[in-house]
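Morning run. Coffee first, then this:
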Amino acid sequence: MIQRFALPVLLASLAIMTSTASAADAIASGSASVTGLSYHLIDLDPNDGVAPSITFNDSYVGIAAVTSAWANNIAPVGEWVRTPGDLFTSAPASLVSSGGNVTGSYNTDSAAINTSLRGQELNAMATRFGGDGYSVTVTAASGMFYGKDEFPDYPGVLIAYNPGQSAFTLSANTALVVDGQWHVNAGLDLSQLAPGAFLDSIQANAWNAYFVNHVAAGVALALDGVDSVFAYNSVQYSQTLDGNGPGELFTQRDADQSDAPFSVQINNASASSVNGMLVLGAEADYTVSVAVPEPGTWALMGLGLVGIGAVARRGRDLA
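And here it is:
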C-alpha cells in the first residue's frame, strides 16, 4: 500500500517488548517494528559518468514518548533519546518511560516501539482530573527522522518537512530504494477493567469513555522538486464504554497484527544532485477520552482531541 503518510515527528529488546505488549492485564497494547532494514542505489543512467551516491545530512535516530492531556491546560510531557546520524549505521539505544508504559529501541537494521495501558493508569487519570472531562494521549515513536526544529510544547517531536532542511543528498540520475519488514500489533481488552476510581467516576457522572488504540510502521521519502512516496502498515481499534451500563463491553476483546515486507523507491532523474527527506520507523499511540456525550461534540473529542497521534493519520503532504 503506497499512500501519503507522516509519522509523528517524534526499547529494551524486541523480545521484551513483544512480551510486554501481550501482558494479560493490558487494557490497550500496541507494538510496531521495522526490521531487516537496508537501502541500495540504482544507477538510472549508466552513461552519465556519475557514480550513484548518497550522503546523510541532518538526519537523526531517536525514540520519543509524549503524553498530552486535554484537561486544565496541562502541558505535554516528553521523554526521549536521540542521536545524530542515520539508522543504518547508528549505535543501539533503548528507552523505558518513567511510567513503564512505553518501551522502544533501535539498532543498525531495526526500530521498534511498544505501548500499554493498564487499570492503574486509568485510575490515576480519574483521580488526577477529578470531576472534569478529559482526554489523554500517549504517543511514541522509534526510528530515523529528519530535520532540526522541534515543537516547543512537544519535546523531542519534530515538525513537518521544511525546504532547506534535508536528511540526505542523492546523486544525479539515481534511485534510492529502502527495503525491510514491518510488523504491527494492536489490541483492546476492556475485560481487564476492574473496580476503581476510573469506573466509579464514569458511572457516577454518567460519562462515556472512548478508547482509541493505533500502531503503525512506515517509511516516507521525498526529494526537492519530486513527488513524495509514503508507505505504511497500520492497525487501529476504538471502543466506547457507556457509563450508564457497560454491559457486554466488559468482555469486548479486539486484537490484530500484520506482517509484510516492504520496498519503497524514489527516483532522482535530474542531471544534478538533490536533497531529500526520510522518515523511517515505528509509531504507537493510545487515547482515552472521558466526557458527557453531548451531541455534536462527542465526535469532536474522539477525532479532534487525540493529541499528536492524530498527526500521523491525517496524511499531510510533507513535500
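DSSP finds five helices and 14 strands in the chain. Good start to the day.
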